[in-house]
Amino acid sequence: MEKIRIHLGVSPDWFRRRYIETLEHGDLGIRLNTTGVCPFLDNDGRCSIYQHRPAQCRTYPFWPEIVDTERNWKDEARRCEGINRGQVIPLKEIEKRLKDLED
Ligand code: SF4
Questions:
Q1: pLDDT digits (tens, 9 = 90+) for 4-19
Q2: How far is CA 59 from the centre of its chain?
Q3: Ligand 1 in contact with 53 (CB < 6 A)?
Q4: What is the mean pLDDT of residues 40-69?
Q5: Which of 41, 21, 42, 18 has the alpha carbon at shortest distance from 30?
Q6: What residue ranges do the domains of the chain occupy?
Q7: In terms of Cα–Cα distance, which of 60, 68, 70, 72 is closest to 101?
């Protein structure tokens, strides 16, 4: 969060109020805007904080609950236009990204 805040050049209070929310189990997450879109998505549809994006974004769509079953993967693919497109990501890279989630 601190890297994102510095990248944006805003105060800690402003950053928390504008961009962060507390989730169900006390974890912190990005506060989506009123239309349910990430506030860091720019007008060209690109991530404006890409180099500092959170772990959840760096590891998507390889979250345990998505890769758990083929059905979950297919369900997610209906929501995400990037799944099953582009280059194949080697299993070792996926495992590395998931490990980053734990760190
Ligand atoms: S990659 Fe993450 S932080 Fe960036 S626009 Fe998408 S959801 Fe938001």
A1: 999 999 999 999 999 9
A2: 7
A3: yes
A4: 92
A5: 21
A6: 1-52, 54-103
A7: 60
